[in-house]
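ingest -> validate -> predict -> emit
validate: passed (alphabet ok, no gaps, 132 aa)
predict: started
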Amino acid sequence: MKLKKSILLGRVKLLIIFLIVFCSGLSSDEKIYEGNFIELKVLDKVSSKNYKINIKIGEEKVFKNISIKPLKCKNSEFDDNPEIIAYLQVKDLKNIGNDEVFVFNGWTFSSSPSINTFDHPVYDLWLTKCFG
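emit:
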């Protein structure tokens, strides 16, 4: 029980530190670029093939059985490693009778895709670029 509390407390502290660093970085003189397009890598887990797709911000693109709509994309230069973030909405077109509207609806980070994961049985998505 004590170990579970320590792990939970450690995760909470890590999240708070991440938010403080992220928010303080945005308020400084850091350059932030908003792009008009995003580039995603899509892995089809069934066929083991990778695809690279470009989508314009605000437009919906259908890729096989999923629909992807990026709403916002930002590049920020943080030290020598730029952070790329995007707000995505992903629908599974195969589950028409499902009550869930989106399979994924939230921010995704290129450097840490595990923070807010896209969980789908067939596809994996990775944010690679924000440009234009």
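The first strand starts at residue 32 and ends at 34.
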